[in-house]
Amino acid sequence: MARREPQFNQTVLIDPTPMPEHIPKVEEIGASSAPLMKAYGRGELECMKEGRKVTRCAASVLKDINQHCLDEFRQNWNCLDNHNHQMWQCRRSERVLNRCVFEKIGLQKVIPDTPKGDVPVHLRDKQLFANRRSVLYPGESDVGVLKERFKSEQRQGS
Amino acid sequence: MPQDLPPAGGYEAVQYKRNIPIRGLQPVWYLVGCAAIMAYGWRKVFLGNREKNELGREKMWSRIYITPLLQAEEDRDQARRYFADQAREKELLGSTSRPYNSDRFVRPTITYSPSKVTRD
């Protein structure tokens, strides 16, 4: 049916004109993939200063993570890439990364509105949907941290 | 003629019951067993659904947290295209006009496409 070449394809819709000079430059994260709707129609032009702040803040956080926790970060996103970006499959590497980020940079992952009294889902030792349900290996009190009992046993063994 | 009468003391009881002991469990225990298996499974489903809710909450909040970042880039891209459009119009017509009777930013429905398609 559709023998005609599509005329409005993405290749001709590229507008390569750079931003005017009077607007300060900001290095993009390069993360936006989908347009998001806004409440106010003027925001695109009037909130540019705030937008630059947001982008620079995010860039600085990424720079800090790359500087201090690069190995943990790489391990986590490699795991996520290998597991279809299902976060429950990669809790172990995520907890290692979160601990590194908290110790070095001081940022903590918080999920608002988690039911009171429940352990937040990213801190649970048992992930019901994961291929490997238990996050901790036997004898660990936290990821990569052995229990006291196993520590003394190791000392005796060595 | 003398009539046929029941024997003295009445007839013996007719044995219509089978006198066989019941084999295996009583049927009610099968019902109880089914209910127990069902209850176990439903418990697992409940726990799984609760965890699924929490995973959904995690996903939604991670998207909410990243929205400003994506929005800022998208808006900057829209503004760049807008300014480019204004400059082009100025160059072609010598003036800029407003097609809409409002100050809102309207995402353009008609897009400029360059005559020479090059992208490096």
Distance between the first and last residues' Cα of chain A: 75 Å
Order of the strands making up the biggest sheet of chain A: 1-2
Largest interface: A-B, 50 and 44 residues
Number of helical stretches of at least 4 residues of chain A: 5
Strand tally of chain A is: 2
Compute the number of helices of chain B: 1
Number of strands of chain B: 0
Give the overall average pLDDT of chain B: 86
Sheet with the most strands, sense and barrel status of chain B: none
SSE-based structural type of chain A: mainly alpha
Strand content range of chain A: under 5%
Low-confidence parts of chain A, pLDDT < 50 over ≥5 residues?
A: 33-39
Rg result of chain A: 23 Å
Function (chain B): Complex I functions in the transfer of electrons from NADH to the respiratory chain. Accessory subunit of the mitochondrial membrane respiratory chain NADH dehydrogenase (Complex I), that is believed not to be involved in catalysis.
Membrane topology (chain B): Single-pass membrane protein
Main location (chain B): mitochondrion
GO cellular component, one term (chain B): respiratory chain complex I
Please outline what is shown here.
With 158 residues, chain A is mainly alpha-helical. Chain A has 5 helices and 2 strands; from the N terminus they run ααααββα.
